[in-house]
Amino acid sequence: MGNLLWIAIAYVMGSIPFGLVFARTFCGVDPRTGGSRNVGATNVARLCGAKWGVATLVCDALKGALPVAIALSFSDSTFFHSLTALAALLGHLHSCFLGFKGGKAVATTVGVFIPLAFWQLVLAGIACLLVIWRSGFVSLGSLTLVTALPVFLLIYGKWKLLPLALVVMALVYWSHRENIGRLARGEEKPWQKKHHDAAGSGCTADDAAAPAAETDGQAPCGCGCAAHGEPGATPDK
């Protein structure tokens, strides 16, 4: 009964929408209605600035790390640890405070693996950051993280955590299904916005950052560039 209670507590902890709390309290905006309409760190950073994005990232990671770390302190069962981790992740994905909707669980994934497989997580994190650096796409880096993690667990012989890592990978891929579609179509928006090369456009993607965040990428600027929401362009969701 004690283990079941702790799993329930882990779910509630994972459900806390720190991105929504920070964005509403300190920026006066609702991340569910702006930008990508997500309560995660990337969208909070887009709408409120980097410091609130980092704060959301840290807190979303902690709400995964703390339940698992406490579970490790009173149980030796890898199965129980895995269930605790999944409960926290499902809380973030389907928050009881947000009508069972939520974020994409990447930061919380990082959190749950900090006490379970720290060095394997570090290696997967390095792969994630390299992909983001080279491609500019946070979503692609996130998918790289959850794909690389089970590989490193396998290489280093952490077999008992492999089922958890595979389930987490499936959950994160599902939560990124729209991003995967946009990546396949070449319509995903990069994290680092670059100047357009179109002659005479007179604009940069940075010029679109504010209106795109407010209107989900649909506000045209009249410059003829796809990033500003010309007809046929697909908005970032």
The oligomeric status of these chains comes to single chain
Structural class assignment: mainly alpha
Number of helices: 11
SSE string:
HHHHHHHHHHH
CA-CA gap between termini: 41 Å
Helix content: 55-70%
Average pLDDT works out at: 84
Taken from the alpha-carbon principal axes, the silhouette is globular
- Tell how many strands the DSSP assignment holds: 0
Largest sheet: none
**Content of β-strand:** under 5%
What does this structure look like?
- This protein is globular.
- The chain has 237 residues and is mostly helical.
- It contains 11 helices and no strands.
- The chain has helices at 2-15, 18-27, 41-48, 50-74, 78-93, 106-113, 118-135, 138-155, 162-175, 177-185, 209-215.
- Helix content is 62%, strand content 0%.
Summarize the SSE layout with pairings.
Elements: H1 2-15, H2 18-27, H3 41-48, H4 50-74, H5 78-93, H6 106-113, H7 118-135, H8 138-155, H9 162-175, H10 177-185, H11 209-215
Helix pairs in contact: 1-4, 1-5, 2-3, 2-4, 3-4, 4-5, 4-6, 5-6, 7-8, 8-9
